[in-house]
Amino acid sequence: MSFATDVEAEVKRIFREQWGKSKATTVPEPIDIALEKNEAKVIDDGTVLYADLSGSTTMVQNYKPHFAAEVYRAYLYSAAQIIRNEGGVITAYDGDRVMAVYSGKTPNTNAATTALKINYAVKNIINPAITAQYVTTIAYTVKQVVGVDRSSLWVARTGVRGDNDLVWVGHAANYAAKLTEISNDDASFITGEVFDRLADSAKYKQGTATLMWRERKWSKMNNMRIYSSNWTWII
After folding, report:
1. Parallel, antiparallel, or unpaired: how do β-strands 20-23 and 39-53 relate?
2. Which residues contact 73 (CB under 8 A, 6 or more apart)?
3. Can you name the residues that pair with 153 across neighbouring β-strands?
4. What is the pLDDT of residue 107?
5. Residues 6+ apart with CB under 8 A from 132
6. Burial 32-58 (b: 16+ CB within 10 A, else e)
7. What does the pLDDT read at residue 1?
8. Is 33 helix (H, G, I), strand (E, B) or coil?
9. How far is CA 186 from CA 47, 118, 132, 212, in A?
10. What CA–CA distances, in Å, run from 160 to 10, 28, 35, 154?
11. Is the N end or the C end of the chain the one with fewer CB atoms within 10 Å?
12. d(Cα 164, Cα 36) in Å, to the nearest integer?
């Protein structure tokens, strides 16, 4: 069979074959899902977080490579450590951003707390470290946005043998990523579905009735109810 014939046959099989589904209560590993057939793990209530470094293209264009690499490393390291500490599972790195999935009893509260803690790390650890290291040579302020949404998730394995990964199908993965594209001074965005499921500890400043989130309408998504925050949470 020719190369083209092989590809055509596999594509036809993918569309023809019935899907095998099984429920998952935790985030699966690629090895848990078959690659050679249509198989999916289904998470009934999964929460997806995207942490995205803002303005990275401009940074790369205007600063030396070693500095841009340091910013990438510092941001993604901090975000990844906080995600894992809050019970999230990192599912992908994509250039200047990281994706994570939360499951279990309090995935929304954990993800929202992660967002506020990443904001703390940027404001109180990363930016002061840049200022201290490059006192007079570089004036740069790291900015970033975290988006969070929840939905049921289909998790399938895609790619080829030896080079494959998981694909996350459900609006949570799409909306969480798109929330990071909203032009705003706030650093954390969550959907109304996430906000409605937050524990009070993630809604209000500790020991007060002060709400840490502001309701707004997402105009590009039919005025969907979302919430944003620029609060920080000490790590």
Report:
1. parallel
2. none
3. 43
4. 96
5. none
6. ebeeeebbbbebebbbbbbbbbbebee
7. 62
8. coil
9. 20, 13, 25, 11
10. 11, 18, 8, 19
11. N
12. 11
DSSP state of 189: E
- Residue 165: phi, psi to the nearest 5? -155, 180
Residues 6+ apart with CB under 8 A from 1: 9
Give residue-wise pLDDT tens across range 79-106: 999 999 999 999 999 889 999 999 999 9
Instruction: Kindly report whether the global pTM for this prediction surpasses the value 0.85.
Output: yes
pLDDT band at 218 (very low <50, low <70, confident <90, very high): very high
Q: What percent of the chain has pLDDT over 90?
A: 88
Distance CA 120, CA 234 (A): 6
Phi, psi of 176 (to 5 degrees): -60, -40
Q: SS3 breakdown of the chain: % helix, strand, coil, rounded to 5?
A: 40, 30, 30
For 110-162, the pLDDT digits (tens) are 999 999 999 999 999 999 999 999 988 988 999 999 999 999 999 999 999 88
Enumerate domains of the chain plus CATH numbers. Answer: 18-25+39-229 (3.30.70.1230)
Burial string for 190-215 (b: 16+ CB within 10 Å, else e) reads: bbebbbebbeeebbeeeeeeeebbee
